[in-house]
Design goal:
- This protein has one domain.
- 34% of the residues lie in helices and 11% in strands.
- The protein contains 4 helices and 4 strands; from the N terminus they run E-E-H-H-E-E-H-H.
- It has a 4-stranded antiparallel β-sheet with strand order 1-2-3-4.
- The radius of gyration is 19 Å and the shape is flat.
């Protein structure tokens, strides 16, 4: 354990991103009222670091093959979609129109298909932002009510 471990986010556990309907701005729920969600690891997790290391190796190999020494154009959106698929750990998907459960078992391959599908940027963005937000992976005592919970207000 590091002397800085109290500052660290818990990036070993997944965070549940509840999906927000882009039209209503409400949590998307199935017919039984259960929220639609995607469980995702942090972009600072070991899985993410492994993905990033492999991506650097791919870019280096591509640059070596290139006549200019620069890699061919790398589509950053595709890289991020692949990374998010690697970080995804499970889901409960719901059709926004019918509220029926979309009964597709989770797999990394299907996660990549989901994130890559045209028209799915609304979902991809929510999950990517959830994975990149360190605050989603920070553990706080249940009694804490925020940053100023134990301090006095300026007017006191």
């Amino acid at each position: 354990m590091s002397k800085f471990s109290a500052l660290a986010a818990n990036v070993a556990d997944a965070f549940r991103v509840e999906l927000v309907d882009p039209i209503s701005d409400d949590i998307l729920r199935d017919l039984n009222g259960a929220p639609a969600y995607i469980d995702v690891l942090s972009t600072d997790s070991e899985a993410a670091r492994e993905f990033d290391a492999e991506a650097r190796k791919r870019a280096f190999r591509a640059a070596r093959k290139s006549r200019t020494g620069m890699p061919d154009d790398i589509d950053q959106l595709e890289e991020n979609q692949r990374k998010l698929a690697k970080l995804t750990r499970g889901w409960h998907l719901v059709d926004p129109g019918t509220r029926e459960v979309i009964d597709v078992p989770f797999s990394e391959r299907d996660a990549l298909e989901l994130y890559s599908e045209p028209g799915m940027n609304w979902l991809f963005q929510q999950v990517f932002v959830g994975a990149a937000n360190a605050g989603n992976f920070m553990k706080r005592p249940a009694s804490s009510n925020g940053p100023n919970a134990s301090s006095e207000t300026a007017s006191d």
